[in-house]
């Protein structure tokens, strides 16, 4: 026999390289708090059903608490020979409290432990992500209220299309994030199910009470099936797919922020503290934060594909493959939390360059649709109105003048249905104010939508 935890049936120690190759302590150490929490709940349950005596349970619980403090003080030296966080903590427990520490693992397997640990860890992670998401959404809503009257060009195909309000644009972002947050909360329900009691794969002959353990750990319920409880990682895949959609949205926002800070657009200013300079070009101020968030999207997509591929051919129940779930999952959490934090800190400090936005909205014939709609209100069929305005635009391109810069005489060359009141219609303010229905870009609608969004967040 060897010194290892499972050494009983072995006749030689693990090859040194294999020990290092198969160890997970390098990355699963961050689960220590959740591992200890799970162990305390397990021991407490074992005492309640009479498998441990109250004294044994008390010694284990105290010992685990002391180990947690030791780890927090940085006093624990993780051992690769002890492979993972579970065995590192268990070995330390027995070192501290003696043989009774060896009773903790009664009716339990590391397979249950790791499945439990990552669910507890991810549950905390999800709550942290939800709170950063809420913070970002609040920032967008406040900025949107401030910029409800600010007119900018709205684009399709990145070509000037119609004037919109900047507040409306920002609330489009907040809608995307609202759906992301709903997906996150939905995924949380399936994370919050307890594997403990699976005892590796088949359940255990000890008279355990899984409802007690589940309640102690704040799980909604014990998992229904012991084989499934220890083996599937679909809940982690769900989280990475939520994260992929979120990063896709953050990346789209990033792209727009980068464009808007470019001198070609010059729509917004990002404060210096969210930008960096160039080591060679003294004039540069680069929008690094949105660029980096856009770039980080790729690794999150990659993690989702990693986990999907990791699971795709695994026979029931647990396989060592599953050890590969942690790094992608942890990095997804870190990346999403960091990106959200950067955005939530940055958005309140965005300054809209309102004059530049208005100037741009006046270029590119953004009110052409308004002129067509005006003609329709005077009885012309929309297709004919479209054609008439097309001619006016062609004339404007030739003259290098916007529709609003033409005289009434000039405009009437294209249709005698055009009257003096057209100039109100062709203003940016008139154009956006006219789109005054739920979901429209009118400033009043933006203010109402911001109020609704604020109230929805208050009851979240
Ligand atoms: N380090 C393992 C993992 O991350 C823990 C479970 C190991 N179980 C086992 N039977 N080898 O999945």
From TrEMBL:
Enzyme class: lyase
GO MF: argininosuccinate lyase activity
Major localization class: cytoplasm
UniProt-annotated location(s): Cytoplasm
Ranges where the Argininosuccinate lyase C-terminal domain occurs: 365-433
Pathway in which this enzyme or protein is active: Amino-acid biosynthesis; L-arginine biosynthesis; L-arginine from L-ornithine and carbamoyl phosphate: step 3/3
Domain Fumarate lyase N-terminal stretches: 8-302
Enzyme Commission code: 4.3.2.1
Catalytic activity: 2-(N(omega)-L-arginino)succinate = fumarate + L-arginine
Key words, A-Z: Amino-acid biosynthesis, Arginine biosynthesis, Cytoplasm, Lyase
Entry superkingdom: Bacteria
InterPro entries: Arg_succ_lyase_C, Argininosuccinate_lyase, Fumarase/histidase_N, Fumarate_lyase_CS, Fumarate_lyase_fam, Fumarate_lyase_N, L-Aspartase-like
Pfam families cross-referenced by the UniProt entry: ASL_C2, Lyase_1
Keyword Acetylation attributed: no
Family under the similarity heading: Belongs to the lyase 1 family. Argininosuccinate lyase subfamily. In the N-terminal section; belongs to the lyase 1 family. Argininosuccinate lyase subfamily.
PANTHER family listed in its UniProt record: ARGININOSUCCINATE LYASE (PTHR43814:SF1)
Protein's name in the database: Argininosuccinate lyase
Gene name as annotated: argH
